[in-house]
Fold this sequence. Notes:
By secondary structure, the protein is an alpha/beta fold. It has 2 domains: about 1-105 and about 270-360, Isopropylmalate Dehydrogenase (3-Layer(aba) Sandwich), CATH 3.40.718; about 110-260, Isopropylmalate Dehydrogenase, CATH 3.40.718. Helices cover about 40% and strands about 20% of the residues. The protein contains 12 helices and 14 strands. Strands 2-1-3-12-11-4-5-10-8-9 form a 10-stranded mixed β-sheet, with helices on both faces. Helix 10 runs antiparallel to helix 11 (about 315-330). Magnesium ion (MG) binds near residues 250 and 254.
Amino acid sequence: xxxxxxILAGDGIGPEIIAEARRVLDYVIATTGEVITVTDGLVGxxxxxxxxxxxxxxxxxxxxxxxxxxFGAIGGPKWDGKTDYDKRPEQGLLNLRQGLxxxxxxxxxxxxxxxxxxxSLKREFIEGLDILFVRELMGGVYxxxxxxxxxxxxxxxxxxxxxxxxxxxxERVARVAFEMARKRDNRVTSVEKANVMESGVxxxxxxxxxxxxxxxxxxxxxxxxxxxAMQLVKQPKQFDVILTDNLFxxxxxxxxxxxxxxxxxxxxxxxxxxxxxxxxxxxGSAPDIAGKxxxxxxxxxxxxxxxxxxxxxxKDMAERIENAVSTVLKxxxxxxxxxxxxCTKVNTRGMGDAILAExxxx
Length: 362
Ligand code: IPM
Ligand code: MG
């Protein structure tokens, strides 16, 4: 059966890091006999510059038709403040997530053994860290209506957004978290702010009821988001699966990423249940280093590994790629963001070379 991957490199460091993942993908195609078609499209500022919008309908249709969408990064100073809100590069990504119905965003914060000293926390707090975030990706304040910037009768301006969750939106993402937990340490921490937000009250109710009815074997606890932020830097290893909403998930996963040594290390998968999965590094477009060829491509290569696992039915290949990355790190090969004493510093291409060389050995 032919499988297909649609690549959207996007802006900033996107094209550079995608190029390395692409080499890994080409290597897999060349060596396994799997028939995987690969096509490219434009998204974000790159699409805006050509088409006047950050994601065209034709591009979204191509994404929907693929088995997996591999995404680089989006946005940059070139487009900041220049365009209407709905023409901003970031809107291209949000529209893509919505168009793919990608409601469950899996972000795993795993600390590679070789990286334990690169964390801002002491080794003992980090070694063996393995947290899986299940972030709701299609609701909450990112999409809630009403939203806007209005001028009031007295002339003052007001900006507003709506945090909004229906019970079924909460339930479908909670289900993913419980299912994932069963394949891991069987524990879910559900995170909201039920102490100040009604959406959080409903969130807690729905998650509690679902656990009682369908997942009594999975341990569930609840935590306020501010406490979770604190616990993440205090005792990060206490967590197994963290289930949370769109905005809290955005914030908390960035913090957890840094625990593992660098934002440049963390991949993500956004799943819908039926449509294609969307795979992207959790970091952004890093305009400050874009075009220099020094960005860390590991998060993108690991995102490709997740695509093999969740969308392409090639779990073994996912593991091979993850092991190759782990070995490269163990061998002291480092991009600038994770450079450490006694290690060998490489650029983006050099890291891609090292990962490919490891893959060839196994
Ligand atoms: C992320 C990013 C996006 C988000 C931006 C680029 C829209 O920060 O994937 O975490 O906020 O979801
Ligand atoms: Mg983010």
